[in-house]
Task: structure prediction
Amino acid sequence: MRRDDPLEREQEFSGIVERQARLMFRVAYSLLRNVQDAEDAVQEVFLKLYRGDAWRRMEDERAFLARTVWRAALDRVPKAADRMDDVAGMELASAARSPERSAAEKDERALLRLLIDGLPEELRQPLVLSAMEEMTSREVAAVMGIPEGTVRTRVMRARAELKKRFEAMEARR
Result:
């Protein structure tokens, strides 16, 4: 097939969507914290990419798309207070666990999410990308457009702040 064959182009682009849509959603969601806004950001990026040809010249597909959706999500960050999304779908407990244990785990996840959401953006964003999205410091640096050392420092500070806040909450119990 020729490089400019519409069918080949469609198949190639569909492969990119299949491989990277989940990552792109998680990156957008980590910044926007709203399912609809994250889906819109991903859709916007895919539409722009499909109309253009930059996606055919990507050297690092994952990093390029994560960075592109990060920028699109930044444009959508609400000016008002951050919104929390309903995470009920992610809270499915295993049937093998006792109801008490499942409830305790759900409470722990909710508490951790609240503590993470309470972090300043400059600490929360690299922590979410590195710890929850399992991106390397180099990948997070590329996505956020900051030096790799800054990523490591911010993640370290975020973890220290989470520990401090958790210990303060435990002391009040």
Summary: The radius of gyration is 19 Å.
